[in-house]
Amino acid sequence: MSMAEIITNLIKDIPITDRNIKDEKFHAVHSLCKEINYIGNNINQITIALRQIRADKKIPDGEYEMIEEQLKKYNEKRNEISELLTRNLF
Questions:
Q1: pLDDT in tens, 46-83
Q2: Structural domain boundaries of the chain?
Q3: What is the 3-state secondary structure (H, E, C) of 14-81?
């Protein structure tokens, strides 16, 4: 930020922010979102495999429902985090 921008911001009563810190936060959150999406993709692949295993009767129904419930909880938490990030960053 140039000296002129700092003075202009002070005159207009605009808070002075460090753009580097904002950029670092953005990149950190962006990386986190990418990782969450990768995990979600892996879970979707696991779900497809589990459904096939269930269809072939190689896993008891009770165990399948237990795993499916955990996957639903994960998806709910992932969506909650996504909404929080969107609301607070964009």
A1: 888 888 888 888 888 788 888 888 888 988 888 888 88
A2: 18-89
A3: CCCCCHHHHHHHHHHHHHHHHHHHHHHHHHHHHHHHHHHHHHCCCCCHHHHHHHHHHHHHHHHHHHHH
Assign 85 to helix, strand or coil. helix
Here the tokens at position 81 are 């985090």
- CA nearest 61: which of 74, 73, 51, 46? 51
- How far out from the chain centre does Cα 75 lie? 10
The residues near 63 (Cβ < 8 Å, ≥ 6 apart) are none
